[in-house]
């Protein structure tokens, strides 16, 4: 066994180190923004094995983000019972997969069209799924999200759907754009929805590259992957 590559070293110290650094940066960004309430950290574990979810749980994490079905379903099953764990589905959803995703997702961040809400309305759920309206800030339909102008009507539809509980808005800042300008638009859309639905105050904004700005713009949930999990393994 070589000294430089001790093969028995567990992955956890590195993972724990990255997690601790991100947690410290979140706390620092909250102080800088004058916020006393910290947003909830959702660790995005897509492409990583169930074992990493278990390690993160052992390190105290409780919220996990996944963006692909059936990877998310299989990982949740493989991870086993993790006390207090909540699974957030954050990726684009094909209408025909919606009911399957509803079986294991505690929250769905990517509600972006009426057809998807109608499919979720027929899902068998033990309790309503926390639902967020994904706002499209790119104008590129391939990236998911509903146009800001349509967000309110969609929110009304979700609010009237017993299998869902309208919680707020989600967005991905456009690549290469100014995240602050993007988050300002999400915040405005979120406020318009909240005017009619006072419980819908969640703002799921902020990823590895822009969570500091997201904290300034009122993020209640951060979806952070690579900064904590390291590079995503390349899929075979
Ligand atoms: C992958 C993903 C994230 C996490 O992105 P990182 O840059 O790895 O932090 C957040 N939100 C969505 C919708 C994603 O697909």
Q: Point out poorly predicted stretches.
A: none
Bound molecules: pyridoxal-5'-phosphate
What is the overall silhouette? globular
Order of helices and strands: HEHEHEHEHEHEHEHEH
Largest sheet: 8 strands, parallel
Helix content range of the residues, please?
A: 25-40%
Number of helices: 9
Classify the beta-strand content into a percent band.
Answer: 15-25%
Structural class: alpha/beta
Mean pLDDT: 93
Radius of gyration: 18 Å
Task: Sum this structure up briefly.
The protein has 236 residues and is of the alpha/beta class. It contains nine helices and eight strands.
Structural commentary:
By secondary structure, this protein is α/β, with parallel strands linked by helices. It has nine helices and eight strands. An eight-stranded parallel beta sheet has the order 7-6-5-4-3-2-1-8. It starts with 11 loop residues before the first helix and ends in a 7-residue tail after the last helix. Pyridoxal-5'-phosphate (PLP) binds near residues 46, 172 and 208.
Topology diagram in text:
Elements: H1 12-32, E1 40-44, H2 50-58, E2 63-66, H3 71-79, E3 86-89, H4 98-102, E4 107-111, H5 114-121, E5 129-134, H6 151-159, E6 164-170, H7 179-196, E7 202-204, H8 211-216, E8 221-224, H9 226-229
Helix pairs in contact: 2-3
The protein binds pyridoxal-5'-phosphate.
Pyridoxal-5'-phosphate is lined by residues 44, 46, 67, 90-91, 172, 207-209, 223-227.
List keywords for this structure.
globular; eight-stranded parallel sheet; 236 residues; binds pyridoxal-5'-phosphate; alpha/beta
């Amino acid at each position: 066994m070589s000294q430089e590559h001790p093969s028995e070293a567990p992955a956890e110290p590195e993972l724990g180190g990255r997690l601790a650094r991100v947690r410290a940066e979140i706390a620092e960004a909250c102080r800088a923004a004058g916020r006393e309430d910290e947003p909830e950290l959702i660790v995005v574990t897509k492409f990583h094995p169930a074992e990493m979810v278990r390690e993160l749980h052992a390190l105290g994490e409780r919220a996990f983000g996944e963006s692909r079905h059936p990877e998310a379903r299989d990982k949740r099953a493989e991870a086993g019972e993790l006390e207090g764990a909540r699974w957030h589905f954050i990726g684009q959803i094909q209408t025909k997969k919606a009911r399957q995703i509803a079986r294991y997702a505690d929250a769905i961040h990517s509600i972006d069209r009426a057809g998807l809400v109608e499919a979720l309305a027929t899902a068998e759920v033990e309790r309503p799924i926390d639902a967020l309206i994904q706002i499209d800030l790119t104008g590129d339909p391939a990236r998911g999200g509903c146009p800001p102008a349509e967000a309110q009507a969609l929110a009304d539809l979700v609010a009237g759907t017993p299998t869902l509980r309208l919680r707020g808005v989600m967005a991905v800042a456009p690549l290469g754009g100014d995240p602050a300008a993007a988050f300002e638009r999400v915040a405005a859309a979120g406020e318009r929805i909240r005017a009619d639905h006072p419980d819908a105050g969640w703002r799921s904004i902020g990823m590895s590259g822009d969570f500091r700005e997201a904290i300034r713009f009122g993020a209640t949930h951060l979806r952070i992957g690579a900064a904590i999990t390291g590079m995503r393994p390349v899929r075979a």
